[in-house]
Amino acid sequence: MKKIVLAGGCFWGVEEYISRIKGVVKTNVGYANGITKNPSYKEVCTGMTGYAEAVYVEYDENQISLKELLNKYWEIVEPTVLNRQGPDIGHQYRTGIYFIDTEDKNLIIESRNEEQKKYDSQIVTEVEKLECYYVAEEYHQKYLKKNPEGYCHINLN
Fold it and tell me: Strand (E) positions, the chain?
């Protein structure tokens, strides 16, 4: 299985959306590329930890390519908006693609460059190596499956 971490605002909706994609075999929500060890949600919400709310994704390359997965990702983010997605504002709500396999970096950059052609404003989505990732508290995992009426900035219909 291939792995990648994607940030696109509140992680509840991103996880639900990504988990529905054919070929995605595992997801969980957590905190990517910050500076404190094992942060809590409350700490991440202060904006002082440097973490992005993110979704860890394992996918089967025989069913979906990284390029296809990224195309799906671009459909749900506003990549030219810094530190905000929908009504959620803060550094933790930035968009980001955090690669685990260095060999994925060039394909991710190509995908971002292709997406850039759709916008007049510069895409601000981070493309970085995943430096650290902490799984979020259990109540955040599969949140919208547990709470179907819960908040989501992404149209899941």
Answer: 2-8, 24-32, 52-59, 84-85, 88-89, 95-99, 126-129, 133-135
In a domain, 157, yes or no: no
Decide if 10 is catalytic. yes
Q: Which tokens sit at 114? A: 């292709």
- Listed as ranges, residues in the chain with pLDDT below 70 are none
Give a yes or no: residue 156 inside a domain.
no
CATH number, domain of 132, equals 3.30.1060.10
pLDDT of residue 23: 98
Q: Assign residue 119 a region: left if phi > 0, alpha if psi is -120 to 50, beta otherwise?
A: beta
Q: Is residue 105 part of a domain?
A: yes
Range of the domain at 69: 2-146
> How many folded domains does the chain comprise?
1
Catalytic hit among 10, 45, 132, 152 = 10
Q: Determine how many CB atoms are found less than 10 A away from the CB of residue 24.
A: 20
pLDDT the model gives residue 155: 87
Q: What is the pLDDT of residues 102-147, one digit of tens each?
A: 999 999 999 999 999 999 999 999 999 999 999 999 999 999 999 9
